[in-house]
């Protein structure tokens, strides 16, 4: 059975889904996206992703393709049509197809392009990597200055993942002015003396939806949270490290630039937060 995807109001087999070569998402990376996880056929943190999408669109003066209720209906229809139990839904909105290449934004007559597709990931919540932890390297953060907007400009994050692979690691943490900003596709944390430390929100990182939920659960569980930048040296000397994202939930980091973090095995804080996040998110899934 071919995957059914959504393009501008139509549900189509993936091989029939087409977007113009003049689409600004393709030519200019003039597009924003969201990735929402699906567990047990239900959406995790949908409201958070929809709210962030609306913000990304607003910040770029881009029209919304439809209402939040319509977006929810499309997500649910894709889950049903693809019989998705565990996996991800990718959503992208671009500024549309002006019919030619031009740097200037087109007028309101050009409608945004909306694309959504499912990615089946059986065992997503049971990812064996969470039991052993992952290794990261640090690289310079040379991305643009509005990382709070979730644009599809993912060339440097892709390069970062390739640099990590080449170095025998799993991912990269990005460093700017001596401090970790975030991971290539996730938010970064360390734990020291029982305190969870993660960079404060600003234009230099994506405001992770998983981050917001995990920090809320941590505070509710009386864990101490400190939102401030930290260095790679602090990460190496930390008791634990981990990252969060919609696709990995809470993922322990056991090595930074070849140095073991703590005992070099996943720590109790990350394990506990992963468990709470998965339990609470499943309960609240829609
Ligand atoms: N990435 N920081 C960056 C740079 C990201 O790309 C992501 C998400 C996050 C975590 O945000 P959230 O918790 O809302 O997923 C932080 C997605 C999963 C991706 O690009 O596939």
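-> sequence recovered:
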């Amino acid at each position: 059975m071919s995957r059914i995807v959504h393009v501008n109001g139509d549900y189509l087999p993936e091989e029939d889904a087409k977007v113009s070569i003049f689409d600004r998402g393709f030519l200019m990376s003039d597009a924003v996206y969201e990735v929402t996880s699906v567990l047990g056929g239900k959406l995790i943190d949908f409201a958070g992703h929809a709210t962030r999408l609306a913000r990304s669109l607003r910040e770029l003066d881009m029209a919304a393709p439809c209402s939040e209720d319509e977006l929810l209906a499309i997500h649910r229809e894709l889950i049903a049509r693809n019989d998705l139990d565990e996996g991800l839904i990718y959503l992208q909105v671009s500024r549309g197809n002006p019919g030619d290449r031009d740097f200037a934004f087109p007028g309101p007559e050009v409608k945004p392009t909306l694309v959504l597709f499912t990615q089946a990931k059986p065992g997503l919540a049971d990812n064996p990597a969470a039991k052993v932890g992952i290794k990261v390297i640090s690289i310079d953060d040379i991305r643009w200055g509005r990382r709070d907007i979730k644009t599809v400009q993912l060339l440097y994050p892709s390069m970062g993942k390739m640099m990590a692979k080449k170095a025998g690691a799993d991912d990269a943490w990005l460093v700017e002015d001596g401090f970790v900003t975030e991971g290539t596709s996730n938010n970064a944390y360390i734990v020291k003396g029982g305190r969870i430390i993660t960079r404060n929100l600003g234009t230099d990182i994506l405001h992770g939806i998983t981050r917001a939920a995990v920090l809320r659960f941590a505070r509710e569980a009386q864990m101490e949270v400190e939102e401030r930048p930290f260095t790679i040296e602090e990460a190496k000397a930390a008791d634990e490290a981990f990252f969060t994202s919609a696709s990995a939930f809470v993922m322990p980091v056991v090595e930074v630039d070849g140095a073991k973090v703590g005992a070099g095995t996943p720590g109790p804080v990350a394990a506990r937060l992963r468990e709470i996040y998965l339990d609470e998110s499943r309960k609240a899934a829609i």
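The radius of gyration is 19 Å.
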